[in-house]
Amino acid sequence: MPDRAPQPVDRQLPTDEARDLISLVRDIAQREIAPSAAEEEDTGRFPREVFTLLSDSGLLGLPYDAEFGGGEQPYEVYLQVLEELAAARLTVGLGVSVHTLASYALAAHGTKEQQTEHLPAMLGGGLLGAYCLSEPASGSDAASLRTKAVRDGDDWVITGTKAWITHGGIADFYTVMARTGVDGPRGITAFLVPGDAEGLSAAVPEKKMGLKGSPTAQVHLDGVRVPDARRLGDEGQGFAIALSALDSGRLGIAACAIGVAQAALDAAVSYAAERRQFGKPIADFQGLRFMLADMATQIEAGRALYLTAARLRDAGLPFAKQAAMAKLHCTDTAMRVTTDAVQILGGYGYTADFPAERYMREAKVLQIVEGTNQIQRMVIARHLAGPEER
Known about the structure:
alpha+beta; 10 helices; 51% helix
């Protein structure tokens, strides 16, 4: 690729502390993440040392309370950190988003005793989390999950299989949704399961078209015993906790998508400025200039949409509809922008020597994870027209 460096995104941040935070993240991204991203994605290497560095730098618990080791940053700041990380390498940005999602149930619904015991290590002690809702036969229809937790004295015994688990097999803790009661959403409870629990194992990671450095695997729970002290929230409250977590998690995916799209735009602009055809840079051709303008406009619109949803969340206002809109729009934008970036690079865009093809492969999964974009449309429509008739 040409040496022309992209200009940093001009961010509207609420405080000087937030501006310093973004500067720190950009420094880490440029020094520790981006240089090895292409090679490590190609070989499927997970950069655990980067997550240790992020934890040591206070970047794994940004939206949570300082009392328990969090950064106590508003979501509008946390999401822009995710965007910066994802632009450098999606495996890292998505990994931080998933870790934040996995920490949510304890941070939002745990008792003070549970939070005091577990959160400091989760938010700043080098631990890495995973979120276990989906199963082989229950993806979009998550309320039909079959993993069971049976009460045995002061313990629960959990049996079942979770699927599509980011960090499956390498996580230090798993937030697991399991059935403790009747069928349907009211019979599900949340548990905090240690990564080294007896009976917990992971299958061989899935072979994916992109995001190869981030392990995605089935997680098997074969009679895993956890004390009732690791139950999060009330019995039967697990599905409500899961949906609440996903509202915030969708914003994380939206921010990651804009990060990938921004990286693809930067690569396309850099290439177009250096590549010469017919005696001049291809960036001088109007057709290509219009493509770049459309890409940049879509990215700015997506960024504004996820930040609007984040500010609603920060203000304590309902934001579920806006979160679904942000996830839908930003991930569709990432797919369009990365596809256009490949087109702008022409034949080079289709080779692994340039990053555009990797961005395109990575963008695709963002339209699927944490609720497919078809599910997001259903969520938005319910807010507009009410629930579907049964």
